[in-house]
Amino acid sequence: MAQSIILELRLPRALTAFCVGGLLALAGTLMQVLLRNPLADPYVLGTSGGAAVGALGAILLGLGGVWMMTGAMAGALFSIMLVFGLAHGTGDWSPPRLILTGIVVAAGWGALIAFILTISPDRDLRGMLFWLMGDVGDTHWPHAGLIVLPLALAAATLVARQLNVLAHGEVQATALGVSVNALRVTIYGLASLTTAIAVTLAGSVGFVGLVVPHMLRLMGARDHRILLPGAVIGGGTLLLLADTAARTLFAPRQLPVGILTAFIGVPMFLYLLYKTRSGENT
Amino acid sequence: MSLLRATGLTVGIGNVTVCNALDLEIKAGQRWAILGRNGSGKTTLLLTLAGLRLANKGTIELDQQSLSRMPRRDIAKRLGLLPQDNRDSFPVTVLETALIGRHPHLSPWAWESHNDYAMAHAALTDVGLAEFESREVSTLSGGERRRLALATLLTQNPDLMLLDEPTNHLDLHHQIQVLSLLADKSKSSNKTLLMVLHDPNLATRFASHCLLLFGHGETLAGPCSELLNESSLERLYGHPLVTVTNKGTSAWLPG
């Protein structure tokens, strides 16, 4: 009995939590260096919302499995492209404009998700709510995450030193021999893929991609060759702990883990935003 | 043999023609200054010569190879750029910043070796930032950041250095110190310099050659001794000048 609880319930849930946390932290770290902005996060910028709409769209059309993932990937890609395109002024992405665009796009996706949920049959509703809040308790064995997470981490680590250089700006990076456009396309693809997989596994869990890289940077991990693997481990651990807390705090009632990550993430996001503003004044 | 050669180079930005069918030959060991009014396109020309911007017409060759066909990494081993502005969005230390200069010299999977660290230490010592190695870049002053950017370029150690206003944000002492350092490197290690400057007195003191951008595509290139005089500079800046002579050296002051 105890064995089957561990193997069939706890282990898949723990693995899902770890994978989702790792994927989101990886996506967040990549998006931050891509945008040269420590506020970037797949949830805040609407990427998770886009992926959720893509996945829900596939479900609505009666498609499942691979198609759901493809839909999520397409939604994530489209959403990043939309936010980057709209927020791009001259030169770098300015933080307020980027965040504003991301939040509005995220709100739009939220409305679309709510709409899809409203027109769906009542019996599906409870299970579908996790697209909005993020919950790792509702997934099956997380094959996709277990495969994609190490592959994406390996691919990102291969370009990690280039990311260190890119963090100093496009001109400096090009002058130091980085093919900036090729690198951007790579990061863009990796960030979309990891977000899409995380969302199909657990819905829109917020702020992991924001909190984890920030904490690691505070602890002195600035080199992306350390930061990227660190983010995967840190993000995985954080979500695993958060999910354990979400499962036990109000037992037997279980909270969606997205609520807990928001409790940690929102104050940190506001603090970072405040710091960015005061940094501009000096 | 020329290190950098531009042939029939036409560069424009917006409505400004920076240069028109410019032929420029920069030989190893020469120190060039680019002078011109605000908005005459000095930075644009420098970025074009660095291969970061496309020319409207003409070709640029680095070491007899077409710049536009060279992989970025190969260019970066030989040609380095000090950009006009550096902005860092993430916390980073002084040493880490200087160390990225080694990027083009390392294979994609390699970590920096002792030798790479030694080059970064030496460059930071050269610009007077040896004591600052573990400091956060965000705590540096404008002038200190400028010298850090120069240390990154020295760590990259290319044969040809393109510098966009290397004296920007620097006080009088550090202006002379930085330009002397660059001139010494040029003389001792045969480094070639091409720098955008705003002060013709610094140009005549530290450069061997100069390129004057008059706007509207008109340019003059040649040895400083031939090109830099009161009348050419008055025409260049559109402002009357006074020549002051003291103990055998002369300087131009705006009149």
Question: Quick gist of this model?
Answer:
The complex is a heterodimer of chains A (282) and B (255). Chain A has 282 residues and is an all-alpha fold.
Q: What do you see in this structure?
A:
The complex is a heterodimer of chains A (282) and B (255). Chain A is mainly alpha-helical and 282 residues long. Chain A has a single domain, classed as ABC transporter involved in vitamin B12 uptake, BtuC (Orthogonal Bundle), CATH 1.10.3470.10. Chain A contains 13 helices and no strands. The longest helix of chain A has 34 residues, at 2-35. The radius of gyration of chain A is 18 Å and the shape is globular. Chain B is of the alpha/beta class and 255 residues long. Chain B has one domain (2-254): P-loop containing nucleotide triphosphate hydrolases (Rossmann fold, 3-Layer(aba) Sandwich), CATH 3.40.50.300. Chain B is 34% helix and 29% strand. Chain B has nine helices and twelve strands. Chain B has helices at 42-49, 72-78, 94-99, 114-126, 142-156, 172-189, 200-206, 224-227, 230-237; strands at 2-13, 16-27, 31-36, 57-62, 65-66, 79-82, 160-164, 192-196, 209-213, 219-223, 241-246, 249-254. In chain B, α4 packs across α5. The longest helix of chain B has 18 residues, at 172-189. Chain B is globular and about 50 Å long.
State the main characteristics.
heterodimer, A: 282 residues, mainly alpha, ABC transporter involved in vitamin B12 uptake, BtuC, globular, B: 255 residues, alpha/beta, Rossmann fold, six-stranded mixed β-sheet, four-stranded antiparallel β-sheet, 9 helices, 12 strands, 34% helix
CATH topology of chain B: Rossmann fold
CATH architecture of chain B: 3-Layer(aba) Sandwich
Under CATH, the topology of chain A can be stated as: ABC transporter involved in vitamin B12 uptake, BtuC
H/E series of chain A = HHHHHHHHHHHHH
Helix content of chain B: 25-40%
Regarding quaternary structure, how should these chains be classified?
Answer: heterodimer
Main beta-sheet strand count, sense and barrel state of chain B: 6 strands, mixed
| Count of folded domains of chain B | 1
CA(first)-CA(last) distance of chain B? 41 Å
